[in-house]
Amino acid sequence: MGIGSVGKILTMAPLSGSIKNKVEIIGPFQEFFKKIVNGSLLLSIAAIVAIIWANVSASYGSFWATELSLNIGDMHISKSLVHWIDEALMTLFFFTVGLEIKREVIVGELSSLKKALLPVSAAIGGMVFPAVIYAAFNYNTDTANGWGIPMATDIAFSLAILAVLGKRVPLGTRIFLTAFAIADDLGAVVIISIFYTKAISWGFLLGALFLLCSIAIANYLWIRHTLVYALLGIGVWICVLYSGVHATVAGVLVAFLIPSKGKDDTQTFIDKVNSYINDFQCQGECGHTILLNKNHQNAVQSIEIACHEVETPLRRLEYALNPWVAFLILPLFALANSGITLGNIDVAGSVTHPVMLGIMFGLVLGKPIGIIFFTYLSVKILKTDLQQGVRWIHIIGASFLGGIGFTMSLFISGLSFVDHEIIELAKFSIVLSSIISAIAGLGFLWYGYLNEKKL
To answer: Where in the chain is the domain with CATH 1.20.1530.10?
Structure first.
């Protein structure tokens, strides 16, 4: 997500003596943060609509169970609407997650061992403790397979809650939360691919491997056309879908192979643009439009081409897909998966159910305890540093926000159980736990702001 890059104000050199503009350049992290926060509003609305719809009409379940088929030659894929969302559209979500992880590994908070140790340690603690707690409550039961549910952090909701406090919370807190949530997402993908795969078709898996190698070769040959990677990526998705491994894993695997370098390097780009800028020299007034000067038109077109050639496919795809993921795919997922029929849940009886106990204790307590404990170990033993301005009260607050599991937890619950009543109970537990975690995280961070000078 390019977390290490923050926005800055640059004064652009004037093209003439009468023009003085200041242009705000929004860094990749600021841009990502803004889109995630804005998208979380739609995500919340979709979840609320789903719950209302499921409780006022029986059409909720039947609508999302509608079969939709795709036929390409002899190939036939038939799945319900909810499965198309979970296995096709969510692949794009996981693809963008993979792009963000790759960006972090190259230039962000995971780009060096020293920088990565703190968020990765926090993520490991935030996955191990909840899983152990859930497993303890569900040991030797039919619901033991749900141990992966409380391990995930919903980055959209957690950052949205953090945004409520605005500048009252140091930027480093956002960076810490985002970095360990990214590492958390990577852990969730690994868990899904290894532990939630029932049977494997080795022929299709080899086909996926062949296509992934083709993408790697295209990258090595400096092929920078997005369409090439899109077609090969779709092929990987189809092969992974038929292989038995969950199809969303294909998104992350393809993302890791997307080129992170442009056709031109930075110096070549600068040299090109400087030469084109010279074509804008005017004697007198330049005019109110470039249409008045053919040299200006050609220079603008050349600069546009130069920008395209220096831009990386990774960044281009991130920029193009993030709005679709934030404003369409995740809200659709929430709408299709958040419908909890409250009348089917015995609230009093569910309080002692091992699934509810495992999820709630895992998310509300296991997450923050694991994150805080492993962060402390990282600082004391591995000698890592907290971000500038970040104090332990901020770590505690961010750790509780890590207990907001929503999207990924709902996703894993659908893979863990078959029984509809257990799935409903798991959804109810996830939503309730996420609300409690959000309130607790907000409370600790607000306390830290009010007592800033004392702490």
So the answer is: 8-196+246-262+311-450
